[in-house]
Amino acid sequence: MEIINGSIKVKALDIAQPVITIGNFDGVHLGHQKILKRTIQRAQANGTASMVYTFNPHPLHVLRPEDAPLRITTFEEKVRIIESIGIDYLISEHFTRQYAEQPPEEFVKNIICDRIHPQEIVIGHDYAFGKNRKGTIELLRKMGDIFHFKVLVVENITIKNIPVRSTTVRRLIALGKVSLAEKLLGRPYCLTGKVIHGKQRRIGFPTANLSPGKNLIPKNGVYAVRAATPYGTVDGIVNIGYNPTFDADRLTIEAHLFDFNADLYGREISLFFIKRVRTERKFPDVAQLVKQIERDIAFAKRVLERHRRRESLHEPSGSA
Is 107 helix (H, G, I), strand (E, B) or coil? Predict the structure, then answer.
């Protein structure tokens, strides 16, 4: 996938009438994936390229920072996931207050049509665009008649009667319901950051203390996780919270990785949240905390093994 930094650069690439989809795509959940795959299908059917038009930063981070949503994915994570789905081009448009002042008609004519010249635009059922999001699907279709592009609307999907939306995924993660969030995302929620030095309490379970690179952190508690490290992927548990047994006053993210002793300080790791094990609570003494951690580890190992078996059942079989 080729990344284009700004729609102004599209003309120089001479891309003939691509099929394009437009949106923020935070999380790239199953609803987004349906839109992206439909974009690819239409592009292949028409013998042209598939293209994503997205924004960086998120518009609300510019217009109303106090209302800006917590990010499910960093921009880099979002790009990697979109690339893995098979999109040919991704336009990263730098979002500014001046850009936000464009009326819907000007956005479609000056940006989408004059610079990109799409033959089809694939959008979600709730798509809105232009200044104050006043542009509607009906308006987009009318402009398609004028500028000769088709509009394909992809309907929303539900999982367990839950509409698959970024706002729903954020809420589930904030509540600690990471297993349900995984069903909407189509993959475990991932939190990436650098390993920093912790308190070194030495209670028998070495931990990698994470400084996360984004601000959507699951609810305080203990979770079964998989950790992608520079040395490979390993199972583990992570505690998110304030370590009440030690009367700590700072939020920490401490991962204990099973059968792992490599030095991770200063290195980046990614935690994939599989299941919430329990809430964080205060224990009368360290000995009882240690016993609970041992139970947590045993439970997490069973959870992770079941998860691995389920994953293997859904993997495509290889050819001989």
Answer: helix
Query: pTM of the entire structure?
Result: 0.91
Q: Are 295 and 302 in contact, with CB atoms under 8 Å apart?
A: no
What per-residue confidence (pLDDT) applies to 143? 96
Q: Which residues of 266-305 are buried (b: 16+ CB within 10 A; e: fewer)?
A: eeebbbbbbbbbeeeeeeeeeeebeeebeebbebbeebbe
Per-residue tokens: 157:
């999907």
- Residue 287 has phi, psi (to 5 degrees) of -60, -45
224 — alpha (psi -120 to 50), left (phi > 0) or beta?
beta
Scan for tokens 């293997």, then name that residue.
312
Q: What is the pLDDT of residue 285?
A: 87
Is the sign of the CA dihedral 227, 210, 60, 172 positive or negative? positive
Beta bridge partners of 275: 224
| Least confident piece of the model among 79-88, 111-120, 195-204, 245-254 | 195-204
